[in-house]
Amino acid sequence: MNTSDQLEPNIFVIFGGAGDLTSRKLMPALFDLSQSRDIPLHFAIIAVDRVEITEEALRKRLQDDVKKFAHAGKAAAREWHEFSGHIRYLQGDFKGKATYKELSDLCESLEKEWGAKAQRIFYMATPPSLFGEIPTFLGNAGLAADRKCSRIVIEKPIGYDLDSALGLNRTLAGNFEESQIFRIDHYLGKETVQNILAFRFANPLFEPIWNRRYVDYVAITVAEDVGVEHRGGYYDGAGALRDMVQNHLMQLLCLVAMEPMVSFDADEIRNKKVDVLHAVRPIPYDAVHLSTVRGQYDKGWIGGTHVRAYREEDGVPPESNTETFAALRLFVDNWRWQDVPFYLRTGKRLPRQVSEVVIQFRAVPHQSFPLEATLDWQPSRLVMSIQPDEGIVLRFQAKHPGPKMVLQPVDMRFNYRESFATPSPEAYVTLLGDVINNDATLFMRADQVEAAWRLLMPVLDAWKAAPPHDFPNYASGTWGPDATQGLLVQRGHSWPAPVELSTVRK
Ligand code: BG6
Predict the structure, then answer these.
(1) Ligand 1: centre distance to CA 151 (Å)
(2) Quick one: pLDDT at residue 2?
(3) Per residue in 7-18, pLDDT tens?
(4) What is the pTM of this model?
(5) CA angle, 503 as apex, 501 and 504 as ends, to 5°?
(6) Is 248 known to be catalytic?
(7) 344: nearest Cα among 363, 331, 362, 361
(8) Which residues contact 433 (CB under 8 A, 6 or more apart)?
(9) d(CA 179, CA 173)
(10) How far apart are the CA of 244 and the centre of ligand 1, in A?
(11) What are the b/e assignments for 244-262, b being 16+ CB within 10 Å?
């Protein structure tokens, strides 16, 4: 990354600047970036929002958020004072022309003050219903006109289904060029997710066996122990498939299955990822019930605490049929992966928070050890722990010490915390730093988003056409509906028990 004095002047406009995302993620990340000198010397944050609040009161509120959520949050008053000087508040209606005129004037006056043209970043931290409108207002106000100096950042959900995603991408494209559009999937900012590329393509060791000849199956789990928290209203209109699978799990699948990139160029990597999505075999509408499982959590126990059912959550209708759990079996139809199942599962109120990618290797082609040596035999397995543990575990067979040949699985572990003195940055710190640096590698391109929706449409359509009769069908604190095992058992597989990298947890 460039340091402050090398970075071009920058105006970071946040639509929804008094909202939740700004408080919990954006401002803490910008503060952390400022502490590592990764923001330009000439830098302004313009928070745009409808709420009536003075600039001073907003800064005070943000200071509390930064204390709570930023890595460097315990900073002394002097650091905060310096940083908060960058924050401006612009109260205005997101759908009022006057707001954009005022914004434009403010940007110009800042540039005049700095004596230099600034990079202008427009961040959509608003409800999704405004995603289509703000870009058009920006376009009409001429704020998107300079292709080199302005960019727009948009959060998921990028659409509600394929049609709405196409519509949104069209609106964006009507006002911005693709190179100006940064679509965030915060999973891509996670250190361990980026490490999938480093592990696969910076080491010659595993790539030769990363294919159908040696891999039996791949299992991707993104489990959360939390419920929908305060987001019942949004979540009930989305569900696990839209909220997690369409974006985060699909991105993980792409990184695991993609071909090696020729260079670290943003579009080269994104091309390789989109190739994977194009190769995923669509699930036929009539076979959706054979390749997918959906679930909704009931009340139950998590970590000794009793928790309520999804239908009892705030903002959720008592008869809701929204899924809080989704599992899928997918195939990637290409030379590397033909017939290797990729199992994906995600859910809320599962026993614990754990995200991991498991590569399960095939058995040896010929078992030459005596039967009594292999009683405890298990196939080799590579586990990439995304969170909360961060690292990699390789399980393989070793000879148990003793006079006889007895095989036993053992683990070789790499743990980020033990190997690196530097803690992993929060995903938003990485991603906002990349936006400021104009590096789109970790952001989703329009065609990726659309390809992911295209794959999921038969599932969404079939689930909608046949509402579930058994919801809620898993108790909070369990690994989802029983049928989830069935997805794997059909092929003699089973969900791997999540690993724990160390006994000492963060
Ligand atoms: C968000 C989803 O994209 O990711 C949430 O909308 C989910 O429902 C969250 O809880 C999980 O992110 P993380 O980083 O906590 O795994």
Answers:
(1) 25
(2) 57
(3) 889 999 999 999
(4) 0.94
(5) 100
(6) yes
(7) 331
(8) 1, 33, 38
(9) 10
(10) 7
(11) bbbbbbbbbbbbbbbeebe
